[in-house]
Amino acid sequence: MLNNINILNKAALFELLSLRFDGENGVPFGYKKLSQIPNPALLQDADKAAKKIADAIKQNKKITLVGDYDVDGVSSTAIMVDFFRQIPYPLEAIIPNRFNDGYGVSPTVLQRVDADLVITVDNGISAVEAAEICKQKGIELIITDHHTPSEVLPEAYAIVDPKLSTCSYPFKEICGAQVAWLLLGLVKKELKLSIDMKQFLDILAIAIIADIMPLIDINRTLVIEGLKVLMSSSRPACVVIRDFLNKSIITSEDIGFQIAPRINAAGRLEDAGIALEFFTAADMHQAYKQFEKLNSLNELRRETEADTTAQALSCGNENDTVIVVANEDWHEGVVGIVAARLVDHFCKPAIVLSCENGVAKGSARSIGNVSIYKLIKENEKYLTKFGGHKMAAGLGLLEEDIDAFRAAINKSASALHPDDFMPSEEIIGVMPSDEIDLELLNILDSFEPYGEANSRPLFLIQDANIIEIKLFGKDKSHTKIIVRQFTHERKTIELILFKKVLQMPKNKKLTCSYRVTKNEFNNRVSAQLIINKIYNY
């Protein structure tokens, strides 16, 4: 992996990054205008669904919305709630509780629904049983989702999902909040409302980033414009986010690493209603109050995740092609994050299951070009439920079937090509120390937002001389490494390794990959080099 790495300069880097977006309809850097977003009516059943919602509003019918407890589901729900407030029209919004209700529009949720029309956001494509219950109760059901459908679809009035094989929407990789937002655009048109759909782009951008949608095509446009709205919006939640991040420019990575985990923490550990109340807070007091709760839950999430990860690592069989681990004491709310940690450690797909009363529920995460959804689907006979994407999925099964499922999914994975398991992140080249400056930061900024399908460039430092190692932070848990990259260079550079303590190696050499980010401190901007991976240490 470390052979044949190019020595770059700023001009060469610009050319390489430009190639990522070359040929996207001749638009520089893959940038499109909001006006170029495909017509929402191209989404199958979207017009039909919009007309039904508009009619229900005109006829003063009871409408209930059922969301999901992750960032995308909470964001979808928040956008819907805000839109209906502005009509104004009463909307009952339910976000299922992970522990009491399970996922999505489940039979448990429907027990407390008294409505003429139920609309789902970010869920429902696999809700066959729930759809049948709605039919029996005389409730009309509109499903809006973005997950991969199974062969059997729920019997609903309308299903709006770009992943349907019969759907002609030209860009398939959109999140649940985008599907909801596009549908609301059609509802606005049906009701001849003057609501500005651009006002929702702040929350929409958070959903796109958090749900790891590829930041290309219309997703790139919506995130760029959404972050602009986030920086200027008077929405109390946006003011709190700006205050918390305290930056002149908020990036996709700030959302992905700082905000999304806090929004997610509510649904993981307690109830996603806390996050919904934050997004939809009508005043600053309420927004700050809910954000403090999210902060506290996120701290608890970190502690729980660290303990569970340590246990899961000791259970994983490194000889397996897919790591499958299970335990009765693991918190159901953190198994997805722990699965991601196992993927990082073993460089293999991982499934982490939490068991209770003979039933196992869990999350799967993948790597490289391996579709964990396909692998799980091949072995669905062992499962009671499953759903998800290529890179992430959720599943349930009986505890007694875990061993058989582990053996079966490993057999399926053994047929895949070894190259499919290679991590997709690639080192772009070596950047001489003299080239690392504010101009380099400006070049990197011009290709924002970074994320899925447009990862922040990784650079290589190979056999650099370590001049000094310092520990920093309140508990000295982070490492600062001063190196001279080449023997002929006079300039030294500083690398940061967060949440890990390093000692000076005997050979005083360092080989690692790193990314360059912007550090703002005391009104001073500088390049910060953050270590991604250390080799041969």
What does this structure look like?
The chain has helices at 10-19, 46-58, 71-86, 107-110, 128-136, 176-191, 201-210, 217-232, 236-245, 252-269, 273-279, 284-315, 335-346, 372-378, 402-413, 438-445, and strands at 63-66, 92-94, 117-121, 140-144, 158-160, 323-327, 350-356, 359-365, 383-388, 392-398, 427-429, 458-472, 478-484, 493-497, 509-521, 524-535. The protein folds into three domains: 10-18 and 425-535, OB fold (Dihydrolipoamide Acetyltransferase, E2P); 32-233, Alpha-Beta Complex (inorganic pyrophosphatase (n-terminal core)), CATH 3.90.1640.30; 316-421, Diaminopimelate Epimerase, Chain A, domain 1 (Roll), CATH 3.10.310.30. The strands form three sheets. It has a five-stranded parallel beta sheet with strand order 2-1-3-4-5, sandwiched between helices. A five-stranded mixed beta sheet has the order 6-7-8-10-9, with helices on both faces. It is globular. The protein has 537 residues and is α/β, with parallel strands linked by helices. α3 runs antiparallel to α7 (201-210) and α11 (273-279) packs antiparallel against α12 (284-315).
